[in-house]
Amino acid sequence: MLQTMASRALMLLGQVVPCIKSNASKIRIRRMELDTNLNMYFKKDEFYFVHDPNKMCKSGDIVLIKELPQKLTRLITHSIEEIVYPLGDVTDPITGKKVTAGKYREDVEETNRLFGKSSEAFDYEKAPPRGRLEGTQDFSHGETYIKYHEDGKDQPFAV
User: Which CA distances in Å does 14 have to 59, 135, 153?
Assistant: First the structure.
């Protein structure tokens, strides 16, 4: 009974994965399931198709989804509530500060100010937002499809 109630949560947090549907995104919800024989928890992934006609979320984004009052189709049962963390800039969920390799960015900037900044150091203030490399190195915006066989051709949007 409790497990059934937990699976009918109102809002879920998940990660966007590549999807071939035109007006939907595919979200992976990761849960921990107890194996009573070993008395250990193991990862269990559930996938939901979410109504996203504007394609506002990209692969890798962490999103909050909400169950629709009525199913749109047989597969599309949820809608996107908000994009919590876009892929790229890591944000500490408790403090809300930006993180770089285990340290807060403001602490790194303070250290650079005290000891001198290297000429080769990356400047986060001047960095462009995600999406500037669309079409050259970032193919997360492209139309995805299922690759059924290897034919030797480059297939950057295949899932």
Answer: 11, 26, 33
